[in-house]
Input
Amino acid sequence: MPITEDNTGRAGRAHRIFFAIWPDNDTQKQLAGLTKQLRLESLCSGRKIKAENIHLTLVFVGKVYPDRLEVLRDVADSVKQSVLPAFDLVIDEVRYWKHNHIVYIAPGKVPHELVNLEGALRDAISTAGFPLEQRAYAPHITLMRNAFCPALPELAKPIAWRVREWMLVKSEQATNGSVYTPIGCWPLGGF
Ligand code: 2AM
Output
């Protein structure tokens, strides 16, 4: 039976937790530049994501109490790095979800390595008793929130990102937006 992380009687405060990949400095600059361009060219209005907060979520775990974080780290350790190589993620499609007012960029072609990483993680987390949403995985990088976007640009050049590691991240709400803190990091193999 899945463990419900919302149970009372647990020590400490539950945090919003997710696994993600975070862009290297160069990729981060390109993504932040693209967000700026969307605003400057008046293509979209909305709240842009701070450069340091730009990421791609692998698995959203949700509320986790401190005593279960160690379990989550063990789960991550158990995911076989040898079969999860570093890979190139080519992100080239700027899109807009009207239903939640998010502007995002996504890979037109999702690399099988990303699918395998997400699948391996999801299976291991689920087996450890963490309840996960059953929604189909839609890899995307949120660039703007509360957005209105009458037109979207075609990218002159895709953004190529060499993905070398994945992370466990804690999300907190501050007055000026989300604060993401990495609390674990695992390398991908083969580079
Ligand atoms: P978003 O950018 O599309 O909102 C931290 O909140 C990260 O987890 C974000 O990348 C966010 O995606 C994602 N996220 C938040 N809530 C989620 C949920 N219920 N299911 C899946 N991903 C979620």
